[in-house]
Write a structure and sequence with these properties.
Oligomer: heterodimer
Structural class of chain A: alpha/beta
Number of domains of chain A: 1
Strand order of the largest sheet of chain A: 6-7-8-3-9-10-12-11
CATH topology of chain A: Rossmann fold
Helix content of chain B: 55-70%
Number of helices of chain A: 9
């Protein structure tokens, strides 16, 4: 059974205007996403800025209340849970944030930050709490004497380690890594990624790894989902996405990823125009205005994810659900 | 993993040893702010001058009093400031409290070898100087250093007591209105949405009320006591901080560390108390001296208009009003002006120093 199942999850942010706050529209940040995350795997989620990746990740932990749809964690529906039951669930699901400078309270000591979950859930206090926090510090590669330091005394990479330790403190099974390494230097990125992978092996963690960096996602993910304007357009095992990406958007995204090889002359697929507004997404396939292969049907009928084994593509022209030939 | 264990940035080598203030451990950031405050000489010295003046004024009874501090009479010591002694104690005829300012009473005591130790200023704020050589208000003299007001009361004594009551009133009002304002701003900013919307409309209406007129109307209906006046001013003064705190909460509640706390299952109250409030307080704190200034000014203006503290209370506003009514006695107006201007300037200097010390652009460097 999948650890986490999402079924047609929708998050619309209402836009109000005018004197009485009349609702004039919605930002369709997440617009009907269904997927599942297996126990122990890393699911990478990629997409451009503003495509709804982070909103999706936050909805999973109910940091943002989804507008509709279901989220089942270990078979339990969490969308309607009250505060107390949700609090119990939160022990199992945690999040690591992008900006290590904003994600740590500047007025709390590192020990307090990491130990807060243990203290709030009444798992440990006093000397025991301190011992457990010390152990966590060692786990994430920090020194024990840094227990009493404040966040501003650390570098970005170290701060991110603190964020990882905080997420681990409650023995969470499922961790949403929301652009967890995007704000770090490349060399530090590698350290944090290795740390995350080591911890995954040790504690049998499941990651929901959100990033706009395709190479990072390739490095850590078992499966990869590609998101465009609030929808999943393609999902497949990581190697399939990178070797055999079907959706035109996936291919464009992959061709845009820099490859550290100056001699390589890649054929770059340059997309026309900008990402359309999520307030008023295009009809049919929301990618069709920018798609080099777009045909008549693309602007009329919204393609659904069609699966060939574990490779799903939402496209009329390519992949298992193709109904028309490319011209 | 081995590569990562070894990274310990040199900046983290700096310890927070030595960062102690008033016997408490403080964060390096607070230490830096403290240093920055000290570096502002004008604000720093204003702070000390104000503190000394305030502490002195707290002991106003010892500085300016119409009763002796100590009477040494027939081998025993009497403390008329603290206790009421009937005249009979000193061999007089009356059962009532000894009138130490009376020549007869002084004679009674000194005749038997007793000694009277007076306060430096022999007038309390309400003492009427009955043997003025000129009609009140009388000009400054050796007896009344700053002259007397139109009821023959010593201006210097009244200024000392007036300073105390102004500052005390301002402080109490500031503390209470800050608590109310911070609580209201916290709720409004943290919960946002409809709570914020409705509350904000209410505040817009409430702050649109002409407060001085309302206070004058209310003050003329009730005879305001110290606490009543405090309550009346509190009705409006709390809004001074509300807006700042609301804005800070609106900003801070969207920080990732607040989200992280929520993801950990921390409740709203704890999030406010532990994560949002301490970070929002910085902005609120820089406003406090200015709230204090506002409170003092509000009391003074009410006193000036005659709707303030009960008649007879020592008050700078009332002294100003006397100065205006008695332009032929400039020492009244000039004294009140200088004391008020001095006090408010000191507070402004302190406020500016605090504001600069908390300026993130400065402390980040």
């Amino acid at each position: 059974m999948a650890l986490l199942e999402i079924d047609s999850l929708v998050k619309h942010f209402p836009i109000s205007a005018g004197f009485f706050g009349r609702k004039t529209g919605d930002v369709k940040a997440v617009d009907g996403v269904s997927l599942s995350v297996e126990d122990g795997e890393t699911l990478g989620l990629v997409g451009e800025s503003g495509c709804g990746k982070s909103t999706l990740g936050r909805c999973l932990l109910r940091l943002i209340e989804p507008t509709s749809g279901d989220i089942r964690f270990e078979g339990e529906e969490i969308t309607g849970m009250d505060f107390d039951r949700m609090r119990e669930m939160r022990r199992k699901m945690q999040i690591i944030f992008q900006d290590p400078y904003a994600s740590l309270n500047p007025r709390m000591r590192v020990g307090e930050i990491i130990g807060e979950g243990l203290q709030i859930h009444g798992i440990a206090d006093g000397a025991e709490l301190k011992d457990r926090v010390m152990a966590l510090l060692a786990k994430v590669g920090l020194r024990e004497e840094q227990y009493g330091r404040y966040p501003h005394e650390f570098s970005g990479g170290q701060r991110q380690r603190i964020g990882v330790a905080r997420a681990l403190a409650l023995n969470a099974k499922f961790i949403v890594a929301d652009e967890a390494v995007s704000a770090l230097d490349v060399s530090i990125q590698a350290q944090i990624l290795n740390l995350l992978q080591d911890l995954q092996e040790e504690f049998d963690l499941t990651y929901f790894f959100i990033s706009h960096d395709l190479r990072v996602v390739e490095h850590v993910s078992d499966r990869v989902a590609v998101m465009y304007l609030g929808k999943i357009v393609e999902i497949a095992p990581a190697d399939r996405i990178y070797s055999d990406g079907q959706h035109p958007y996936t291919r464009a995204l992959l061709s845009a990823a820099p490859v550290p090889d100056p001699t390589r002359k890649a054929k770059r697929i340059v997309l026309q125009g900008d990402v359309p507004s999520p307030i008023n997404p295009p009809s049919g396939c929301s990618f069709h205005p920018r798609c080099p292969f777009a045909q008549k049907i693309c602007s009329e009928v919204e393609p659904q994810l069609e699966f060939d084994g574990d490779h799903g593509v939402a496209c009329h022209i390519f992949g298992p659900g193709a109904t028309v030939k490319p011209n | 993993m081995s590569d990562s264990v070894t990274i310990t940035a040199s900046e983290s080598a700096e310890t927070d040893a030595g960062n102690r203030f008033l016997g408490r451990n403080i964060t390096p950031l607070t230490a830096r702010r403290l240093q920055s405050f000290k570096a502002n000489r004008r604000g720093y010295w204003s702070f000390w001058i104000f503190l000394v003046l305030f502490v002195l004024s707290l002991f106003a009874e010892v500085i300016a009093n119409d009763k002796p501090l100590l009477v040494d009479y027939q081998g025993s010591y009497y403390f008329p400031v603290l206790k009421i002694y009937p005249e009979t104690v000193f061999g007089g005829d009356f059962e009532t409290e000894a009138e130490y300012r009376e020549k007869d009473v002084q004679d009674l005591i000194t005749r038997k070898g007793g000694k009277i130790y007076w306060a430096p200023i022999r007038y309390s704020y309400g003492t009427v100087n009955l043997d003025l050589k000129q009609p009140a208000p009388s000009p400054p003299s050796l007896e009344n250093l700053l002259g007397t007001d139109d009821q023959a009361r010593d201006v210097l004594a009244r200024v000392i007591y007036g300073f105390r009551i102004s500052v005390l009133f301002g402080l109490i009002l500031t503390v209470i209105s800050s608590i109310v304002g911070i609580a209201a701003g916290a709720i409004q900013g943290y919960f946002g949405g409809w709570t914020d919307l409705l509350f904000q409309r209410f505040i817009e209406i409430w702050s649109g009320l002409p407060r001085l007129f309302l206070l004058i109307i209310l003050a003329s209906v009730f005879q305001p006591s110290f606490w009543m006046l405090l309550g009346l001013l509190l009705l409006f003064e709390w809004m001074a901080l509300e807006g700042v705190v609301r804005a800070e909460f609106l900003r801070t509640r969207n920080f990732d560390y607040v989200r992280a706390a929520r993801a950990l299952g921390v409740g709203n109250i704890t999030i406010i108390r532990r994560h949002v409030l301490p970070n929002a307080m910085t902005a609120a704190l820089t406003f406090l001296p200015f709230v204090l200034i506002g409170s003092i000014t509000a009391l003074t203006s009410l006193d000036f208009l005659g709707f303030g503290l009960p008649p007879g209370s020592p008050s700078l506003g009332e002294l100003l009003a006397q100065g205006k009514a008695n332009l032929q006695a400039p020492w009244l107006g000039v004294t009140a002006f200088l004391v008020l201007a001095g006090m408010l300037s000191l507070l402004v200097f302190i406020g500016e120093a605090i504001r600069d010390a908390f300026d993130p652009r400065k402390t980040m460097q």
